[in-house]
Amino acid sequence: MSAKLGLWINKNIGDISRLPIKRVTDKNGHMRTVHYNPDKDSQPKPPRHFSQQEKDSKNNILPKIDDYNFSDDKYYRRTKTGNLQNNDADYYMFVQGKDPGNYGDFLFEYDGKNSIHIIDLKDKLIENWHKDKENGRFGNFMDSNTADYYEKTDIDDEDLIDMFNPERIVDSAVAFDDPALVSWFYERVLGSYDSVLTRDGAIIFNRDLGELVAKKSLGLFLDDKSRRFVWAMA
Questions:
Q1: Rounded distance, CA 164 to CA 161, Å?
Q2: Both 14 and 99 in a single domain?
Q3: Which of 65, 123, 128, 159 is deepest in the core (most CB within 10 A)?
Q4: Cα–Cα distance for residue pair 211/110, rounded to 1 Å
Q5: What is the domain extent for residue 67?
Q6: What is the pLDDT averaged over residues 78-105?
Q7: Partners of 219 in the beta sheet?
Q8: Is there a single domain that holds both residue 132 and residue 172?
Q9: Residue 32 in 3-state DSSP?
């Protein structure tokens, strides 16, 4: 070790032989032993994809989900990220007036804008279902096997309405759990609306209608694997 390096170590670190050691992995994947200064080790920073204080569209700090005041006339959905998640049909299911449960760390709210209740669409739903069934048009909206199944299956009008009006949307969305039926419904029944309301929920087809309003709390937790404190959702 050069004299210059020795002076720098004594000035900035002190006697290196007295510092504790730890095992680390270098950039080549090799384990090696190094001295470290516990007084200068800083806590890891939160991951870059979210901050300690997430904010809503009005720049207000988001409250914790447990502290959020749910409204009976609004609809809610949880996601794993701070954005509404896409799926093949590009639609999003919300439950009315309560926390949907452990489906993610971020809570979105929908106020019912530009929506219509499924009961107000029942005549159009029944008429177009039977018309497309008789004319073999389901294949325009779904794969051939699925279309063949619905064209050969007799469903009475009351059961048909119940398919698109689930009793408990969190437990089962019935027809809205099937992207093929959602595609048919969107093209043949919904019309110019952005959302359809059900007994206890809403299915929206415009992600901009969902607003991020709350999240789980962010705190320091001891990671069992690395034995270091990390930022995570509580």
A1: 5
A2: no
A3: 65
A4: 6
A5: 46-234
A6: 83
A7: 232
A8: yes
A9: strand
pLDDT per position as a tens digit, 96-155: 999 998 888 899 999 999 999 999 999 999 999 999 999 999 999 999 999 999 999 999
33 shares its domain with 80: no
Same domain, 201 and 178: yes
* Model confidence pTM above 0.90: no
CA 224 to chain centre: 26
For residue 203, the one-letter residue type is: I
Query: How many domains, the chain?
Result: 2
Residues 21 and 109 in one domain: no
Contact 93, 173 (CB under 8 A): yes
If asked whether residues 82 and 175 sit together in one domain, one would say yes
Distance, CA of 60 to chain centre: 20
Nearest-angstrom CA–CA distance, 140 and 126: 18
Three-state secondary-structure class, residue 230: strand
> In this structure, what token pair is assigned to residue 142?
């779904």
Task: Based on the fold, state whether residues 87 and 32 are members of the same structural domain.
Answer: no
Question: Are 71 and 97 contacting, i.e. CB atoms less than 8 angstroms apart?
Answer: yes
Q: Are residues 35 and 52 in the same domain?
A: no
Bridge-based pairing state of the strands 211-215 and 218-222:
unpaired
* Tokens 């609004």, located at residue: 74
Q: Percentage of the chain surpassing pLDDT 90?
A: 54
Task: Find the length of the chain.
Answer: 234
Rounded CA separation 215/65 (Å)? 5
Note the pLDDT tens digit of each residue in 156-183: 999 999 999 999 999 999 999 998 999 9
Q: Are 209 and 194 in contact (CB under 8 A)?
A: yes
Give backbone dihedrals phi and psi of 218, rounded to 5 degrees, phi first.
Answer: -110, 130
How is residue 22 written in tokens?
A: 């730890």
